[in-house]
Amino acid sequence: MRVRRIRTAALLAVTATLASGLLASPASATPLPCPVTDAMISAANYWVVNGTELAANTWQNGSFYTGNLAVVLATGQSNHRTLPWADANGYAILSDPSHPFAPDTQAVGEAYLDLHVYFHPEPENLVPLRNNVLAEIGTGKTTYWGQAEAINRSMPSFARLGVLDSDNTILASMQKLFHYTEKVDGGGLFNETVGLWRHDSGSFTFSSQANGEAFAGLAKVLAALPSTDPRRVEYLRVFRKMAGTIRLTQRPDGFWNTDLLNPLDSPGPESAGTSLLTYGLAWGVSAGVLDARTYEPAATKAWQALTSKALLPSGFLGYVQNPAARPFSPPAKATDTAAYGVGGFLQAGRWIAALTPACQAP
């Protein structure tokens, strides 16, 4: 099944008017009978009105604006905020001299790439991202991805640029960076025994946030690479191994705990990690790389938990862990939200819609 896509004329109409302000369906249009995309639109529109620091090109906004474009890809509707954000920032990558090529600064690359590939293919818009990636490769270092989150914040941009540019150097460098993170850093951040990632070499817990980013990031890389790419084999192996553990650690209510293996550590629902884990499961089933009978129930159960408990009728998404926290922090509360959590929710919705019969084009 395919997620509902914008027809060519509608796509041109949407992309030609990307400016500021909210957009509802045209008065003459028939509302799309899809509860999944209704929830997505509600959450996105709430955040662009009530969210904080929407102008910055930070990793949190990279997540939100990627999700904001997922709404457009799934529904054909736009709140007209992503293009002005990217234009105002000049499609730039933040510079942090104390942490050059930090994955957090590259996290906006995914939104830039989506704008370029799906809506506004002006080559100059990818120049800052491409120059940043090539400069990183030019250092010859493979130690930049010192956290599991890098697999979502940096790796998809490497994969997509490498394929877009037909540049094997980018893809080969991506594999070296991944190998260091997976197998070398602190003895390897990926634990083969449990099938989960530690946040970094100093961590001994397996958080839903870190694993959600690793799982979603691998999904995005697998989606970008051609089936013949030899590097894909290892990414798919890790993705499937993670999926098995993720399914088994899901809470009875559909969420995942902040600490996947310790329900007593910061107990209670957590939306950010749950959203990204949902993304990976839903994409995997939709793409045919995960067994639907085994994994689709977990994905749809998680979405139901998110939309029935975390998402309010207003569009506010709660139970989002403090982005600077680790599993030793207080539990996420119903009133806790953040841009990266909303972005993950929107990204997950795109692939849940792909699995939902009511959301398919007639």
Automatic annotation (TrEMBL):
Keyword terms: Hydrolase, Signal
GO MF entry, a single one: hydrolase activity
Signal peptide: 1-29
Gene3D superfamilies, per database record: 1.50.10.10
InterPro entries: 6-hairpin_glycosidase_sf, 6hp_glycosidase-like_sf, Glyco_hydro_88, PolySaccharide_Degr_Enz
PANTHER family the UniProt entry points to: UNSATURATED RHAMNOGALACTURONAN HYDROLASE (EUROFUNG)
Protein name: Glycoside hydrolase family 88 protein
Species assigned in the record: Fodinicola feengrottensis
